Amino acid sequence: MPPEPLTPEDILRATEDVLRRYGPAKATVVDVARALGVSHGTVYRHFRTKTALREAVIRRWLHTTTGRLARIADGPGPAGERLEAWLRALFAAKRRKATDDPELFATYQVLVEEHREVVSEHIADLIGQLTTLIEAGRASGEFAPGPPDAETTAHAIHRATAVFHKPAHAAEWSRPETADALTTVIALLLRGLRA
Amino acid sequence: MPPEPLTPEDILRATEDVLRRYGPAKATVVDVARALGVSHGTVYRHFRTKTALREAVIRRWLHTTTGRLARIADGPGPAGERLEAWLRALFAAKRRKATDDPELFATYQVLVEEHREVVSEHIADLIGQLTTLIEAGRASGEFAPGPPDAETTAHAIHRATAVFHKPAHAAEWSRPETADALTTVIALLLRGLRA
Known about the structure:
Number of domains of chain A: 2
Protein name (chains A, B): TetR family transcriptional regulator
Keywords (chains A, B): DNA-binding, Transcription, Transcription regulation
Domain HTH tetR-type (chains A, B): 5-65
Radius of gyration of chain A: 20 Å
Shape of chain A: elongated
Helix content of chain A: over 70%
Order of helices and strands of chain A: HHHHHHHHH
Largest sheet of chain A: none
CATH superfamily of the largest domain in chain A: Tetracycline Repressor, domain 2
CATH topology of the largest domain in chain A: Tetracycline Repressor, domain 2
InterPro entries (chains A, B): DNA-bd_HTH_TetR-type_CS, Homeodomain-like_sf, HTH-type_TetR-like_transc_reg, HTH_TetR, Tet_transcr_reg_TetR-rel_C_sf, TetR_C_27
CATH class of the largest domain in chain A: Mainly Alpha
Largest interface: A-B, 27 and 27 residues
Organism (chains A, B): Streptomyces cheonanensis
Oligomer: homodimer
């Protein structure tokens, strides 16, 4: 028994370990409970279903990226510089996840395919941050006004940088030319926003 | 026996049919010969190995896209309009292949994964066409001069539109919002090129 009361974070960390060890197809709530030295009823008191537990662990994984990005989106400085820093931080965060622990990254790819609604929330969160940045740049006169509206433009930027953040392209992320290409793409998009 | 002498095109068409019917893992040169009513030696006189035959059939499939695009790249009119038409034609050609005959599209996805050097040639061909278009726009003063050079900019445009032509994204191509997103992305990139 753990000396401190069990927190949701303890359960999520143990779930990630169990998923990594047994793989998404085999990992069960009983495995998580056993890893924590508690009954599976204790786990179910915090997460009512296996689906709820898996969704929470995916949200936690995705939030390590979006939390850092939110601080850039809401930070000081010209909108163009913040947008550039935001796009670079998104690429760096995804690349780090893919290269530092490829096995865990592959595990999460399987999980997100099975819980697309959590991914949709994540994308909506990113689009929201981009929209805020574009609105800030338009309000200060740094970016040209619409149409299209800021949210449509945010979607366009998200798609135009997909090769730098969509997991389907992860194999390209460690190549030096990919980082160089991101620099050129960002410069082109910023000129487009300012024009 | 066919009444006319067997052409390479006859063999490639038959190979595509055989690949579609048996799948890339099982289709053999003997199957192609049987479909044509000739000996496998006759097929080998035109294509010296199974690999050479498969590469030729992939090149033929990819060329149905690049041939049409080359006519747009080399056509008349302002570079910006040609670039827009070129990007729309690339998306339309890929979407048509993916939706008109999804089984054949899936077959070719397996083939291209096994013959990456043919894909590299294809991408080099597309980058060459984009580079020509950007150079034309810079020469006429329609696009801003570099740096970066036209080829680097061509690579950036190819990557920024990847979700509209890379097969990993094919599932999104039939959604109406994808065509709208392409319009916004093209407008943003063209403003960036002109700025």
